[in-house]
Amino acid sequence: MVETKIDEEKISRFLLQKLKERKWVHGNSVGTPMQLLSLIIEVERNRADEIIDELQKLGITIDRSLISWGTYIPVKAPVRLIPEIQKIPGVVKVWYDTPRYITSTSQTSPTSPTSLPAQPPAIQDPLLGKIELSPVEIPAKPLEVPIRIITGWISAIISGLGFNPLRIHNPNVEILPNSVAAEIAEVPDLREVEVKVAVLDTGAPLPAHPHWRKSIKAVSFTGEAPWDGNGHGSYCTCQAFGKQFATRFGIVRGIVDARNAMHGKVLTNAGFGSTKFVLKGMEWAYNSGAKVVSMSLGGPLQDGLQDPEVRVVEATRDEIIWVIAAGNEGPDEWTIGSPAAAPSALTVASYSPLYGDVAVFSSRGPQASWFKEHKDEYEEGLKKYGDDFKKPDVMASGGGPVKEGQKPDLLYGATQGWFDGVYDLTVEGFEAFRGTSMATPVAAGLVALLLEERKIKTAGDVKKVMAKVAEEEGREKDIARGYGLIKYTYF
Questions:
Q1: Average pLDDT in the 444-466 region?
Q2: Strands 29-30 and 4-5
Q3: 99 preceded by cis ω (within 30°)?
């Protein structure tokens, strides 16, 4: 068997570790494994074209449409060619195109969201194995939804809820209109803002949706149509920037009514994507002039602060406020995802409106699991960035509960896709959700309002105000709540 050597300086440590775990690499030697992997080749600026020519000579498949920031080239390549890729002049590093998904993954939920089995969509990653969406946010597969609606109606009728058909819903959850998020954040009546905002998620709401009712610039990087076919992206977009509408569960509203809103589809209708989609979406938002970007997604952190998405956040921190979900891996510590781990991101935990504290499922800091395994890098980050390195930063309303065994509280708002009907048992364009994904657009909408009113310029400004509030209340930034519940009246 012919073996070639990997240059350990030109490969992600995360990727190399996983290759060794799979026994596709021994020491730094690669045999002849033919397994195709999605990789991202980081190259020197202004050399992408010549490097693409060399990659094509190796028979490597390249998606030119997803090259981003002039330096990240997504490819499909067998493991055995990694050493050859590294030898190409101008190649800086080989990264894994890590999966990205709706906030975070989990094999189990601290509190079962319904009485029915939690079987969320899953993918089989060739390097990382089976990955499931967190049942905190997505407790069903598309084909299960009709069955859940039928069995849910039966359950609700038996429980007594069926006597009020306007309030019919799964009896194992409490449903609150998402307007409670604005009330808790002490946001004034719905105001229009001109500041450019963007959401990167599973797709945009249709312009005619009653919770939206306006145009939206929508682009897809996944190969699917830019409109939401999941439900998650339409909820998040309308929660942050939508209009007001009366539903059977009460008034739903955006935090602000954004006139210049955009949506970049970086996750498929199944709720999955990858780093290449997210990097391209971040580049698109930046080039489109977005000043606030809401990202209710996440995934594994590669190589600490060298993670490509983290580096983008840091490089653009003075131009964009990146508002990013902490994740749904709580109450375990060291469970922050990427890009939420970026020091300059505004990382958002979920607050339960019903129980009045941080949700039990909300990911805990002080940072991502990478730093738990690399404590020296954690100490370096803490020394360089101080409290900005500790995560999360703030809480916003995203549902609960706060303890295991309590009935979950969910927020009701727009949805457009197969998730419609899981909790409210009716397919009508609205649904209830919970998770740090739901908390993130609340914070993003509030940040957009503060930016419009010129009360802040950067995420750092938000953190300074919240740090002062915490200090005045005798609190320190903690690994569950950050500086605490973000409110408009603090600014």
A1: 98
A2: antiparallel
A3: no
Of 11, 2, 3, 9, nearest to 82 by C-alpha is: 11
Q: Which of 479, 484, 460 is nearest to 367 (CA)?
A: 479
CA–CA gap between residue 429 and residue 306 (Å, rounded)? 40
Q: Where does CATH 3.40.50.200 sit in the chain?
A: 131-490
Strand partners, 198: 262, 293
Q: pLDDT tens across 268-321, in order?
A: 999 999 999 999 999 999 999 999 999 999 999 999 999 999 999 999 999 999
Question: Under a CB-based contact definition with an 8 Å cutoff, are residues 394 and 400 in contact?
Answer: no
Tell me, rounded to whole angstroms, the distance of Cα 183 from its chain centroid: 24
Name the pairing type of β-strands 297-298 and 99-102.
antiparallel
Q: What is this structure's pTM?
A: 0.93
Who contacts 400 (Cβ-Cβ below 8 Å, separation ≥6)? 350, 351, 352, 353, 354, 355, 357, 359, 360, 406, 408, 409, 434
Measured in whole angstroms, how far is the alpha carbon of residue 181 from the centre of its chain?
19
Write out pLDDT tens, residues 337-388: 999 999 999 999 999 999 999 999 999 999 999 999 999 999 999 999 999 9
Determine the average pLDDT of the residues in 474-480.
97
Residue 482 falls in which region: left (phi positive, over 0), alpha (psi -120 to 50) or beta: left
CATH (residue range 4-97): 3.30.70.80
What contacts 225, CB < 8 A, 6 or more positions away?
203
Q: Are 261 and 237 in contact (CB under 8 A)?
A: yes
> Tell me, which fold does domain 131-490 have in CATH?
Rossmann fold (3.40.50)
Q: Where does CATH 3.30.70.80 sit in the chain?
A: 4-97
Q: 92, 43 in Cβ contact below 8 A?
A: yes
Mean pLDDT along residues 50-66: 95
Answer yes or no: are the C-beta atoms of 429 and 212 closer than 8 Å.
no
Mapped onto helix, strand or coil, the DSSP state of residue 294 is strand
Torsion of CA 460, 464, 470, 475, to 10 degrees: 70
Q: What is the DSSP letter of 397?
A: E
Sign of CA dihedral 194, 199, 203, 205: negative
Give the helix ranges, DSSP H, for 412-477: 436-452, 459-472
Phi and psi torsions of 129, nearest 5°: 85, -155
